[in-house]
Amino acid sequence: MSTFLPPLFPSYQAACELCREAGGALVFQSASWRVIRAADASFPAFYRVVWRAHVSEWSDLSLAEQAVLMGVVGAVERVLRDALAPTKINLASLGNVVAHLHWHVIARFDWDSHFPAPVWAGAAREVAPPAVERLAIGLDELDARVARAVGALAPGG
Amino acid sequence: MSTFLPPLFPSYQAACELCREAGGALVFQSASWRVIRAADASFPAFYRVVWRAHVSEWSDLSLAEQAVLMGVVGAVERVLRDALAPTKINLASLGNVVAHLHWHVIARFDWDSHFPAPVWAGAAREVAPPAVERLAIGLDELDARVARAVGALAPGG
């Protein structure tokens, strides 16, 4: 369950980074999606929910698939809210560079380097001590809580 | 159906811009959500799907409410794809400044001012003629198509 499974033929695309690699620290993988944690020092509580098959757009999924994927996004969000009490959760599916459907789920804090701007804008301030040291719990524990929450949504648990 | 309906008590918050105002050109309003078009010269095909009640986070909605809202987001996305054949659709729910649940649905083009960066990053180029003139159809027609598509999802049409 913690092994990266690339998409199966016929959706696999060799040129796509998210078909070839997990794309971050693998937190949990089911048969149709995975959760990874991005390595971002400014935003340590930054997860991505990646659809396993190579599709570009949200509306490429069926309504049933959308419900599955957004259920996982919601579960990650809920863990971040419960564990970290962030100022805000940011969700986004952009994919302009890597057009393989994935959702960003990011815990934002009023003290973080960019707040209230989006993480893709310019930084507003320097943060010291480092952001990761200001989280209520460590990333290993956070990953474990995320894995438990989303694992409960995976067929076969 | 094209009249802005503020949230009902008890969720109404006078300090919230999206409780007091539509937040853009009102395209369609149902009893629980509305679709507006932002006024953004760089990204003319930029819609927002706003939940009528004042809630901050995606996970504040029930699963049934999430399905309703994402159905509307998906319908807007599908109209933009069919009408404009954009390079990519960008979806986001941020709310760091206005913490009233709303989804951005933005048609992106490889020629637009910021592509492939997110719209919240810095511009990469100047665009001439203006972006709106490069869309396959006009904004009035686009609004009408969006209104028809999302109107079909509203109870009572």
Derived from helix and strand composition plus strand pairing, the structural class of chain A reads alpha+beta
Question: What is the oligomeric state here?
Answer: homodimer
Strand content of chain A: 15-25%
Count of DSSP H/I helices of chain A: 4
Calculate the terminal CA-CA distance of chain A, rounded to whole Å: 10 Å
- Portion in helices of chain A: 25-40%
Largest sheet entry of chain A: 5 strands, antiparallel
The low-pLDDT segments of chain A are none
Tell how many strands the DSSP assignment of chain A holds. Answer: 5
Largest interface: A-B, 34 and 34 residues
- Order of strands, main sheet of chain A, comes to 1-2-3-5-4
Query: Which value, in Å, is the CA radius of gyration of chain A?
Result: 15 Å
Give helix and strand order of chain A, one letter per element, not per position: HEEEHEEHH
What's the mean pLDDT score of chain A?
A: 96
Q: Using the alpha-carbon principal axes, give the shape of chain A.
A: globular
Describe the structure.
Two copies of one chain form a homodimer. Chain A is α+β, with helices and mostly antiparallel strands and 157 residues long. Chain A has helices at residues 17-20, 63-84, 131-134, 139-151, and strands spanning 25-29, 33-37, 46-51, 88-93, 102-108. In chain A, strands 1-2-3-5-4 form a five-stranded antiparallel beta sheet, covered by helices on one side. In chain A, a hairpin with a 3-residue loop joins strand 1 and strand 2 (33-37). Chain A starts with 16 loop residues before the first helix and ends in a 6-residue tail after the last helix. The model of chain A has no long low-confidence stretch (mean pLDDT 96). Chain A binds chain B through residues 56-59, 63, 66-67, 70-71, 73-74, 77-78, 81, 87-97, 99, 108, 115-118, 120-122, and chain B through 56-59, 63, 66-67, 70-71, 73-74, 77-78, 81, 87-97, 99, 108, 115-118, 120-122.
